[in-house]
Amino acid sequence: MDNKRKVLLIYTGGTIGMVYDQKLKTLVPINFDQLNKYISYLDRMPIDIAHVSFETPIDSSNILPKHWIELAEIIEKNYNLFDGFVILHGTDTMAYTASALSFLLENLNKPIILTGSQLPLDMIRTDGRENLIASLEIASAYENDKPIVPEVAIYFEDKLFRGNRTSKFNAENFDAFYSGNYPILAQVGVHIRYYPEYINKPNNKQLKVYKNFDNSVGLVKIYPGMPIKNLSDILCDNDLQIIILETFGSGNAPTYDDFLQTIKTAIKNGKIILNITQCKAGRVELGRYETSLSLENIGVISGNDITTESAITKSMFLLGNIKDKNKIKELLQTPLRGEMSKFD
Question: Which parts of the chain fold into alpha helices (H)?
Fold first, then answer.
C-alpha cells in the first residue's frame, strides 16, 4: 500500500528554478523532470511529487493579479488530487503572491508553501536545496490524517511564516524575510518544530476560490517635505478607489491644513483612505497622538498591523468581489485570513 503524501510543485519563475547554461552564458529554467539531477536525494523522500509550470516562467518583478488568479485556478483544479502544494517563486514579490492567494482561497484546508532562493539551484552554495526540501516536507506534513499547516505560508532560511504577514527585507542575505507582527509558524533545525498555537486550524469547509481582483488601488508613502501636489495627484486620480497611506510610526502624518484638506476632499469624493505604518513592526493607533487624531477625524480608517503587501492585495481583492463601499471599509478593518490582529 502506498502511504506517500502527494505534493504538487508549481513553478512560476524565479532564481530557484534557474540554472546556468554554458552555451547561452545565461540563466535558463531547469527541466523539472530532471530535478533529481540537482537534488539527488529527492527521490528518497516519502512524497510523490508532481510538477507543473507556468507556460512562460516570469521574473517575480513582472507578477500581475492575473498570475495570482492563474495560481488559484491551478490549486483549485488539483485540490482534491494532492495533499499539499509548493510554489516556487521569485523572492521580490513573494509576499504579495502569498497574501493574494490567502484572500483568493477561502476555507483553505491544505498547505500551500511558497519558497525560492537567493542563488540558483545548480550553484554549490545555493540556499534553494534546503528551502525546497523543507517546503516539501512541510507541505506533506500530516498528523492524525490532518495537515499540520493548512494555510498559505512562506518558507525561507529555516523559518516558516504566515504568508500574509511577511515582507522581504533583505536582498543580500539568505535570511531574506521578516514577520514583525506575527510569530513564525515553524522553526527548522535537526527537527521541524511547529507552533500550533499560531497556525490556522482546519475548518473542514469546502474550498471557495475567488477569481477577481480590481487594481484600482494607490499607495502613498508620506515623507517630510512631501509636495502636496504629489499627494493630490494620486488622491484625485479618478481611476483609484482605495488609497493606502504609509504613515509614520503608529499612524502619524503632518497636520498642515493643505495636507489634511487634500485628504478630506478625496474622502468627500468617495475615496477610501487606509492608514498603515511604514514600520516593519507595530501598528496604527489612530488618536494616540494628535498627528493621527486629525486623520481619524476626517474619515481615514486604520489598517492596524497589516503589511503593505497584504493591504494592497486585500484592497484589490475586496474591490474585485464586493460592490458596497461601506462593506469594503468594514472588511478592510476586519481580519479575514489572519492578515491582521484583532484590536478593540
Answer: 65-78, 94-104, 128-139, 228-235, 257-268, 290-297, 308-321, 325-332
